[in-house]
Write a structure and sequence with these properties.
The complex is a heterodimer of chains A (about 375) and B (about 550). Chain A is of the alpha/beta class and about 375 residues long. Chain A has helices spanning about 15-25, 40-50, 60-75, 80-85, 100, 105-110, 150-165, 170-185, 200-215, 230-245, 265-270, 350-355, and strands at about 5, 10, 30-35, 55, 75-80, 90-95, 125-130, 140-145, 190-195, 220-225, 250, 255-260, 275-280, 295-300, 310-315, 325-330, 335. The longest helix of chain A has 16 residues, at about 170-185. The two termini of chain A are about 25 Å apart. Chain B has a single domain (about 55-440), classed as TIM Barrel. Chain B is about 30% helix and about 20% strand. In chain B, the strands form 6 sheets. In chain B, strands 1, 2, 3, 4, 5, 21, 22, 23 and 24 form a 9-stranded mixed β-sheet that branches. The model of chain B has no long low-confidence stretch (mean pLDDT about 95). The chains are: A alpha/beta (about 375), B alpha/beta (about 550). The interface between A and B is large, with 61 and 61 residues. Strand 5 of chain A pairs parallel with strand 18 (about 325-330) of chain B.
Chain lengths: ~375, ~550
C-alpha cells in the first residue's frame, strides 16, 4: 500500500489521489517534470501532460541536450557497448567522472582485455581530461592527457587538426602528446570514443563527434555515449515515439510543440507560467531545481524521499521494487529489469492511472 | 451483431470477385450471406468500392531507427492541428499514434515494419503497441552477425543457422527474416567501403552471394511463410541493375523477396552516367516466378532514409539534405539514418521517380509486385493515394512528366507506357498478394472466415487520389473505425508473429556465444510478456505446413 503526505502530514492514499486529480485537473498549464521513471511511467506521464494540455520535462534535460543538440544539428556516430567490447581496438575516453556516471564502464567494455575481433590486438586506451587519479585502473594501461573540462574542446580540435595533417599552435611536449594521440587514433581499425554528456558540455560533444567524422574518412571510428541519470535515454525514446519529441515539449495549443527554452520546467515554475507541477523522481528522490514554493506541487518519489511541501505519494523504484522496462546502458536497448526487492509500492504508471481515473468529466480523455 | 455492406462494388481477387454485391460480417469475421436473418446494421455502399483492408508489406513505422529519425529531425514533423477529443496524440507529427490513424484513414489495416535488429525487438514491440487500430508485425534483421558468418565459414550443418533463426524468431516475436547487404555491414566495420555480390567479407572468406543463398535456404527450411526478405548490395548506385539481375540469377529457384527494387533499377547511360534500367529489370522479374519484389516508389518530398545498410548510409552522409545523420554500428547489423529531399528538378531524383513507375507498369504480375514507397525512404506512406492515381492514369503520368527535366524524359520509357492499373489489380497488389507473401490465412480477402478488416472507398474516377486518401468506411475486426476519412475511434490491433519449430539445443550454444563475445546474458534481449503493456495482443501466423 502506498503512503502519502500533505505538507508533511500523513493522509489516506485515496484522499491523495483525489487531491492530486483536483490540483492537476484544475490547473491551466501544469508541468509534468522530473520524469525520472521507467518506460511505462514515462508513457503514462506524457499521456497525462497531453490530456491536461500541459508540458513535460526531464530532470536531466540539460545533459540530454548536450548530446541531442549535436545529433540534430550535426549528426552522430554511435555503437553499442557490446560491439565496442568485441571490436574496439582503440578507446578514447573523454572527460572527468566517467566511472561515476557509469560504474561498470571498464568491466562492460572489457578495457583490460584485447578486442575479440581485429586479430585480438591489445586494446589501446586513451583518456583525455580524467579526474585526478581516476585513470589509475588496475590491469589497464591508459595514456592520459590532463585537461580541465573547459580545455577539452580546444584539445579535441587540436587532435582533429593533427588527424587531418593541419598545423596547431601548441608546441613542445603538449604538441608531441597531441601528435601521439592523433597517430594512435588514425591507426585504429575500429575505434570508439566514450563520453558522458553529464560530464562535458555540448561544444565538447560536437568537437569529439567532429573528430570521429574526420577519422571515418580513412578508418572506422564511432562512439559510446553514457546516458544521463534518471532513465533519461529511455524517456527520450518514449517521448520520441509518442510525440515525435524529447522532453521540454508542451501541449498548450492542443498539439505537441518542442522548445527547450519555453518548456524548461524550472523556468515554467519560477516564472509562474505553470500553475501546478507533478514532480517524478522514482530512482533517487531528487528534488526539483526551481526556487519558487507557491506553485501547487505533487511529488512522486520512493520511500524516504518524501517532500515536506505539497502532496507526496510514495512510488516504488523501477527494477528494484517492481519489474520495469528501462533503456539499459549496458546494451543501449530497452530491457526488462525484474524486481530485485519486490514491494507493494506502486509504480509511477500505476499512480498516474489512479490520479487520472479521478479527474472530473471536464478533462478530456 | 450482423453487419451488411450492401450494394457496393466488391473487389476481392482472392475469390475472383469483381462486381456489385453484399458483404456480411459478424463478431469480427466475414460471414457468408446468412439465410433468413436480417442484418442488425446495413450500410448502403452503392457507388463505393469494397475491399479487404490493405496490407503494407514493407514500411518503417517503428523501432529504434525510426525513433532516431524522429529525434534527428524535430523540424520535420511539427503538428499543426489540435487533436480530436477522443484520440490522444493522433495529430502528434510522426508519432506512433498518428501512424495508426493515418494508415487506417487510407483503408490499411495491417502494416509490416521491415527492419528490427534482434537486440531492439522489445523497443519495436513497445512502439507497435502504441500504434492504434491497425495490426502490425516486424521482420528481424539477420545475416551480418558473427554467429551466422562464423557458422557459414566453418561449414557447419545448415541446421545450425536454421535453428538460430527459429530461436531468434521466438525470442523477438517477429514475422520473418530480412537480410541487409549480406556481409557488407560486417565488412564496413573492417573499413570496406564498397561491397558487391561477389566481394568477400574479410576474416570470413564468404561472398555476399554465398551468405544470402545460405540464408535463403535456412529461412526456407524453417517452414515460415515469408521467404528471405533481401536488401541487395549496391543500393542506389549507378549501374546496380547488374547486381539485381545477378542476384535473381543466384536465387536457386527458391522463393526470394527483393526489397524496394526501384533503388536497384539504375543503369549508367547518359551524360550523368545514371539512367533507368527498369525495363531490363522488369523483364527479369517477369521471367523469374520464384521472385517477388516491392517497388519502393520515390515521390518528390522531404524524406529521411532509414536503413540497416550502414555502409550505404555512411556513403550517403555527404549528400544528406540537410547534411546530418546518425550512423550506428551495432552487434551484427546496425542502422543509418540520413535525411534527404527528392526534388522534381533534380536529374537523379526524377530518374528514380520514373524508374519506380516503369517497374510497376512493365511487370506483369501484381501477385509478385508489391506496392511500397519503402516509407519513409522513397516517400512518406501518406503519398500512397497519389501513387495509386499515377498507376491508374496515363494522363496523370503525362502531366507529371511535363514537369520533369527534359533530359530525364529522354532517358525513360515512361511516356510510351500506356498501361493503367485497374482497381482489381490495385486490390491484388495491396490485398491478395501480401496475403500470399506472408502466408496470412485470415486477411487480404473478403472470403467467409476472414477477419472483418474492410475498406470502403467512394468511387471517384476523376480523382483516384482523393478516393484512396479518405476511405468512406473502414472496419477493423468488424468495428467501424473510420467514417468519411476520419478516425471515429481508436481500437487496439494485434501484433502478428511466427513461431516455427526448431531444435532448442541451439539456445544453450547461443547463450554461451553472447556471454563469451559480449559478456551479456542473451535473455536480456528476449521479449517477455511482463515487459509489454497488457493491451499488447499477439496472434500467430501459421507456418507453411
Amino acid at each position: 500500500m502506498s503512503k502519502a503526505t500533505l505538507d508533511g502530514a500523513p493522509i489516506a492514499i485515496e484522499d491523495a489521489y483525489q487531491h492530486a486529480a483536483k490540483i492537476l485537473g484544475g490547473a491551466k498549464f501544469p508541468v509534468v517534470a522530473g520524469l525520472a521513471t521507467d518506460a511505462a511511467g514515462a508513457r503514462a506521464a506524457i499521456l497525462l501532460a497531453e490530456r491536461l494540455r500541459g508540458a513535460y520535462d526531464h530532470l536531466a534535460s540539460d545533459q540530454i541536450f548536450n548530446d541531442l543538440d549535436v545529433t540534430r544539428s550535426f549528426g552522430m556516430f554511435i555503437t553499442t557497448p557490446a560491439e565496442a567490447r568485441a571490436r574496439a581496438d582503440v578507446v578514447l575516453l573523454v572527460g572527468p567522472g566517467l566511472t561515476e556516471h557509469w560504474p561498470a564502464l571498464f568491466e562492460r567494455l572489457a578495457l583490460g582485455e584485447p578486442a575479440r575481433f581485429n586479430d585480438a590486438a591489445p586494446r589501446k586506451i586513451l583518456w583525455l581530461g580524467p579526474k585526478r587519479n581516476e585513470a589509475k585502473v588496475e590491469g589497464v594501461e591508459i595514456e592520459t592527457i590532463a585537461a580541465t573540462p573547459q580545455a577539452l574542446p580546444g584539445l579535441l580540435l587540436a587532435i582533429r587538426a593533427r588527424v587531418g595533417g593541419r598545423p596547431i599552435t601548441l608546441n613542445g611536449a603538449a604538441a608531441k602528446k597531441i601528435d601521439a594521440y592523433a597517430a594512435t587514433l588514425k591507426a585504429a581499425r575500429f575505434g570508439a570514443v566514450v563520453w558522458s554528456a553529464s560530464a562535458i558540455d555540448g561544444l565538447t560533444v560536437e568537437a569529439l563527434q567532429g573528430l570521429v567524422t574526420d577519422l571515418n574518412a580513412n578508418t572506422r571510428f564511432t562512439g559510446v555515449p553514457i546516458g544521463a541519470r534518471g532513465g533519461a535515454s529511455g524517456v527520450v525514446q518514449v517521448g520520441g515515439w509518442m510525440t515525435g519529441f524529447p522532453p521540454r515539449t508542451g501541449f498548450g495549443r492542443g498539439y505537441p510543440e518542442h522548445d527547450p527554452w519555453r518548456f524548461d520546467a524550472r523556468r515554467l515554475v519560477d516564472s509562474g507560467e505553470a500553475d501546478a507541477a507533478l514532480w517524478i523522481s522514482a530512482h533517487g528522490g531528487e528534488a526539483p531545481a526551481w526556487t519558487r514554493d507557491d506553485v501547487p506541487l505533487i511529488t512522486l518519489a520512493p520511500a524516504g524521499a518524501g517532500a515536506a511541501r505539497g502532496l507526496y505519494i510514495e512510488v516504488g523504484r523501477p527494477g528494484e521494487t517492481h519489474d520495469a522496462v528501462e533503456l539499459a546502458q549496458e546494451t543501449s536497448s530497452f530491457v526488462l529489469r525484474r524486481a530485485t526487492a519486490p514491494s507493494e509500492a506502486p509504480s509511477v504508471a500505476e499512480v498516474i492511472h489512479a490520479i487520472s481515473a479521478r479527474f472530473s468529466e471536464d478533462v478530456p480523455c | 451483431m450482423l453487419t451488411c455492406l450492401s450494394g457496393g462494388h466488391v473487389v476481392d481477387p482472392v475469390n475472383g470477385t469483381d462486381g456489385v454485391g453484399d458483404v456480411y460480417f459478424e463478431d469480427g469475421r466475414v460471414v457468408a450471406r446468412p439465410d433468413g436473418r436480417k442484418p442488425d446494421v446495413t450500410h448502403d455502399v452503392s457507388g463505393h468500392v469494397v475491399m479487404a483492408g490493405a496490407i503494407d508489406i514493407h514500411s518503417h513505422i517503428a523501432g529504434g531507427s525510426v525513433n532516431t529519425a524522429r529525434l534527428l529531425l524535430p523540424e520535420a514533423h511539427r503538428a499543426h492541428k489540435a487533436r480530436p477529443a477522443a484520440t490522444p496524440l493522433s495529430t502528434a507529427g510522426w508519432s506512433t499514434f498518428q501512424t495508426g490513424r493515418l494508415y487506417a484513414q487510407m483503408g490499411y489495416t495491417t502494416v509490416i515494419e521491415p527492419a528490427v535488429s534482434p537486440q531492439h525487438a522489445l523497443h519495436a514491440h513497445l512502439e507497435l503497441s502504441d500504434i492504434p487500430i491497425i495490426d502490425k508485425a516486424f521482420l528481424t534483421v539477420l545475416g551480418n552477425e558473427p554467429f551466422v558468418l562464423g557458422s557459414f565459414r566453418d561449414n557447419e550443418s545448415p541446421n545450425v543457422v536454421q535453428d538460430y533463426i527459429g530461436a531468434t524468431l521466438e525470442a523477438t516475436r517477429a514475422i520473418g527474416i530480412k537480410c541487409v547487404n549480406a556481409g557488407g555491414v560486417d565488412a564496413f566495420k573492417k573499413n570496406v567501403r564498397a561491397f558487391s555480390l561477389d566481394d568477400v567479407v574479410p576474416e570470413y572468406g564468404l561472398t555476399s552471394r554465398e551468405i544470402f543463398q545460405r540464408m535463403q535456404r535456412a529461412v526456407h527450411a524453417t517452414g515460415i511463410s515469408h521467404p528471405l526478405h533481401l536488401h541487395m548490395n549496391n543500393l542506389g548506385l549507378p549501374g546496380n541493375v547488374e547486381t539485381a539481375l545477378a542476384t535473381i540469377d543466384a536465387s536457386q529457384g527458391l522463393r526470394l523477396h527483393l526489397a524496394h527494387v526501384q533503388f536497384y533499377a539504375y543503369g549508367k547511360e547518359g551524360k550523368n552516367g545514371f539512367s533507368s534500367a527498369a525495363a531490363q529489370f522488369a523483364e527479369k522479374i517477369n521471367s523469374s516466378p520464384n521472385v517477388t519484389v516491392d517497388v519502393g516508389q520515390v515521390m518528390f518530398a522531404d524524406i529521411v532514409t532509414i536503413s540497416s545498410d550502414v555502409m550505404k548510409q555512411f556513403n550517403s552522409l555527404p549528400g544528406g539534405r540537410p547534411k546530418k545523420g546518425v550512423i550506428l554500428d551495432a552487434e551484427g547489423n546496425g542502422a543509418g539514418v540520413v535525411p534527404y529531399s527528392y526534388r522534381i528538378s533534380d536529374f537523379f531524383n526524377a530518374v528514380q521517380w520514373a524508374a519506380g513507375l516503369e517497374l510497376f507498369l512493365l511487370t506483369n504480375d501484381p501477385m509478385r509486385v508489391f506496392f511500397t514507397t519503402d516509407h519513409p525512404n522513397g516517400a512518406p506512406f501518406t503519398t500512397y493515394p497519389e501513387v495509386f492515381a499515377l498507376l491508374m492514369s496515363a494522363d496523370k503520368r503525362a502531366q507529371w512528366l511535363s514537369r520533369l527535366p527534359a533530359d530525364v524524359v529522354a532517358l525513360t520509357n515512361l511516356p510510351a507506357i500506356k498501361r493503367e492499373y485497374t482497381i482489381y489489380e490495385i486490390a491484388t497488389m495491396t490485398r491478395a498478394a501480401p496475403r500470399k507473401l506472408y502466408g496470412f490465412e485470415d486477411r487480404g480477402s473478403l472470403g467467409a472466415g476472414s477477419v472483418a478488416d474492410v475498406a470502403v472507398y467512394k468511387t471517384n474516377e476523376k480523382d483516384r487520389a482523393e478516393m484512396f486518401r479518405h476511405a468512406a468506411y473502414v472496419f477493423k475486426d468488424g468495428e467501424l473505425v473510420v467514417r468519411n476519412g476520419d478516425v471515429a475511434r481508436y481500437t487496439r490491433g494485434k501484433t502478428l508473429h511466427v513461431k516455427p519449430e526448431y531444435n532448442k539445443t541451439i539456445n544453450k550454444r547461443l547463450d554461451s556465444y553472447y556471454e563469451d563475445l559480449y559478456g551479456l546474458r542473451r535473455g536480456m534481449f528476449r521479449v517477455e510478456d511482463e515487459a509489454l503493456p497488457a493491451s499488447q495482443v499477439f496472434a500467430e501466423v501459421p507456418c507453411r505446413s
